[in-house]
Amino acid sequence: MSTSSDRPSVSAPDALSPEALADARQGQPRRGLLGLLFVVPAAVLLAVGWGGPVHTFEVLGPLLTFALPIVAVIAFWWQDWPGSLLSGGWSGLGDTAIVAAGGVVLTLLGQGLLEGIDLQGVFARGASVEVPLAVAIFGVILQLTLVGECWPLRGLSRIWSGLAALVLCWLVGLSVYSGLVGTGSVTGEVFASWFAALGVWQMVWYVALRGWPFARIRRRAVRLVTAHLSVLACGWISYLVAERVLGWEPGRIAEVSGSAIAAILVIAMLFEAWPTIRLTVVPGRSIMLVLMAVLTAILAVLLPLVAAGLGLSDRQSLSWSTHATLNALSLAVILHVAVWRRWLAD
Q1: Is the peptide bond prior to 62 cis by the omega test (within 30 degrees of 0)?
Q2: Inter-residue contact 264 to 292 (CB < 8 Å)
Q3: CA dist 95 to 41, 61, 113, 217, 339, Å?
Q4: Which strand (E) or helix (H) includes residue 212?
Q5: Comparison of pLDDT for 40 and 13, the residue scoring more
Q6: What is the number of alpha carbons within 13 Å of residue 213 lying toward its C-beta?
Q7: pTM recorded for the entire structure
Q8: Residue 258's closest CA among 180, 328, 337, 186?
Q9: 6: which of 2, 44, 51, 216 fits an S-S bond (Cβ 3.0–4.6 Å)?
């Protein structure tokens, strides 16, 4: 059996403490709106700022996707270390510099494992074959961190547990990629879109609903097995429904999944579920999920239209839209809230 203190803060407990709830009710929507002053410019820069939309997602897409596991380690395993050694905005700036440098290093590692290292090609290239590997690694580290409650690595010291998690998730992600994509069993696009669909449910259960209902299972072994199987099943079922019932291609599945993940982070993390936190639990959570679905639909429809208006083809529009939500908007929200700790907005 484990106590709530053993669990990551995003899912321990599955309802905010009275103090945290009062703080969110008092601070929102002001700090969410102030946060948009950071999130929106950062997301736009990451979406189109490297020579236009196509060149941006081709160049920054791999770099940002490989950087996402580092963000997860700093935010959820290291609790803002080493930036916490600095004060004020220097803390977030220091962590962001580590994320950026780490993204380059890990992109080179992924490139070396799959294609061979090309230093010049990292910042000037076409479509990348290593992005599906990066998506898998990020999906695995979210599964370990959120669903798995960092177990069993949390028993190590803070720094070593985060490093061990990063290495373990690389090994697992690379093994799964090699076994499926490397053997030709599935295409890289299908592989990445399945992990994107899984990511939606990781966000729903552990960011939107804060681990409910799994967090209420007292025995850790039962809780973790139930949670892992349930989240994986949700990912599989939603992917199959999208593919076989709705007839969506993998690119469309990834695009809608990215929109859902970004919508959940904006509403549940940036705005702390405002205005639904002013309601009781059941109606509040129900309305929150409806708002997330509405924002998902808006992003999934609007961004491809924006891309088409910028002259992108249908396929490029889906790829850019996925990049804009998963790598740009989602990363900007996580950096602002979990790494920069809402600096100047709280």
Answers
A1: no
A2: yes
A3: 19, 20, 26, 35, 7
A4: none
A5: 40
A6: 3
A7: 0.91
A8: 328
A9: 2
Q: How far apart are CA 147 and CA 140, in angstroms?
A: 10
Structure tokens at 237: 């079922």
d(CA 327, CA 340): 17
Cβ neighbours of residue 38 closer than 8 Å, sequence gap 6 or more: 332, 336, 340, 344, 345
| 15-19, 155-159, 178-182, 262-266: range with lowest mean pLDDT | 15-19
Number of residues in the chain: 346
What type of residue is 57?
Answer: F
DSSP characters over 223-260:
HHHHHHHHHHHHHHHHHHIIIIIS---HHHHHHHHHHH
The pLDDT, as a whole number, for residue 135 is 95
Sequence spans of domains, the chain: 17-339
Q: How confident is the model at residue 6 (pLDDT cuts 50, 70, 90)?
A: low
Predicted confidence (pLDDT) at residue 35 exceeds the cutoff of 80: yes
What gap in Å lies between CA 103 and CA 71, rounded to an integer? 10
Assess contact for 46 and 328: CB atoms under 8 A: yes
Decide: helix, strand or coil at residue 108: helix
Average pLDDT over residues 261-270: 96
